[in-house]
Amino acid sequence: MKSPTFPLFLIAALALAGGLARAEKADRDKPMNVQADALRYDELKQTSAFSGSVVLTKGSILIRGARIDVRQDAQGHQFGLVSAEPGQVAFFRQKREGLDEFIEGEGESIEYDGAADTVKFVNNARLRRYRGATLNDEFSGHVIHYNNSTEVFTIDGAAAKAGSSTPAGRVRAMLTPKPAIDTPAAGNAPAVTPLRSSGALGGEKK
């Protein structure tokens, strides 16, 4: 089946124009491209559903999943649910504002809340931060909740099932120390020129 073109652009704009682009502000002005096998759009309910190996890009944003469902409320906030194929994970990636860093995550499902500007990765969740092409930090757990605005995230492990011998899922983290900032030695500190007052707005006459 051919991928829809014009309707996809229309609904993609509805889905992402006000939300996922906040981490990298320049993303808001970038064109969006969506590839999918099918699209169902309900104008009355302001909902849309992309299905079939969905790939959505917008600036630095990249989303992949088997299905993406989007709705918009009366205030213009967008809410999205990305679902993966059984046994697979959905994928999300975005550049951090003003830095050569990327945040990317995976989960069997990914939930986006445009009103709160948060992303939640559910089941087999992973979150990674790259500095350039180098993996810097990595986290895994049952549920990872990431706040784009505050850059604060929480991770929950899976609870043990009642009557099951399977242990509860554990949260795992790999943190790389930030590079030390070089400071000049006390004996090598540059001389500081004291400020001089001037009696005129144009400065001291020479």
Task: Please characterize this protein's 3D structure.
The chain is built from one helix and twelve strands. The chain is mostly beta strands and 206 residues long. It has a single domain, classed as Sandwich (lipopolysaccharide transport protein A fold). Strands 4-5-8-9-7-6 form a six-stranded antiparallel beta barrel. A hairpin with a 4-residue loop joins strand 8 (109-113) and strand 9. Residues 1-22 and 192-206 have low confidence and may be disordered.
Short descriptors:
206 residues, mainly beta, lipopolysaccharide transport protein A fold, 6-stranded antiparallel beta barrel, 1 helix, disordered C terminus
- Number of distinct beta strands: 12
Q: In what range is the share of β-strand residues?
A: 35-45%
Number of domains: 1
Q: What percent of residues adopt helix (DSSP H or I)?
A: under 10%
CATH architecture: Sandwich
How many individual helices?
Answer: 1
Instruction: Provide the succession of SSEs.
Output: HEEEEEEEEEEEE
Instruction: Give the class-level CATH name.
Output: Mainly Beta
Based on helices, strands and strand pairing, what is the structural class?
A: mainly beta
CATH superfamily: Lipopolysaccharide (LPS) transport protein A like domain
* First-residue to last-residue Cα separation: 80 Å
Mean pLDDT level: 75
Q: What can be said about the biggest beta sheet?
A: 6 strands, antiparallel, barrel
The CATH topology label is lipopolysaccharide transport protein A fold
Alpha-carbon Rg, integer: 23 Å
Which stretches are low in confidence, meaning pLDDT under 50 for 5 or more residues running?
1-22, 192-206
Shape: globular
The largest beta-sheet arranges its strands as 4-5-8-9-7-6
